[in-house]
Design brief:
By secondary structure, this protein is mainly alpha-helical. It has helices at about 20-45, 55-75, 85-115.
Length: about 120
């Protein structure tokens, strides 16, 4: 009784075939560009007064979240995962962003109204 085993090269990873070297380099340069923009905001625009600190922080947080998306989606391969996993991670990310905004709001309030304690 000889059992034949046909070996395929796919192994169910057909979706991951889109992660070619070219795509990896493309994502790398997206991340590099976003990082350069963040450095320009932090080291040039805010110190020289071209952008206020509040707007700079907001833009910086948005750019950091975009970078986090690219890292999670492509380098952790979650772009190719099932809908339930993506939904659970998205909901978690929304709560994290909400708590960051909440902490920044509370910190700003305390900074403005608790000056007598300094």
């Amino acid at each position: 009784m000889a059992h034949e085993h046909s070996h395929t090269t796919e192994h169910g990873h057909g979706e991951h075939a889109t992660m070619s070297k070219g795509k990896i380099w493309q994502v790398f340069f997206y991340l590099l560009g976003i990082t350069v923009i963040e450095f320009i905001i932090a080291l040039v625009l805010i110190p020289k007064g071209f952008m206020s600190q509040g707007i700079g922080n907001f833009v910086y947080i948005v750019l950091t979240l975009v970078k986090a998306f690219y890292i999670i989606a492509y380098f952790m391969h979650l772009k190719f995962e099932k809908y339930a996993l993506i939904t659970s991670l998205t909901i978690s990310l929304i709560f994290i962003v909400y708590f960051i905004v909440l902490l920044l709001t509370e910190g700003s309030y305390l900074n403005e109204h608790m000056t007598h304690l300094k």
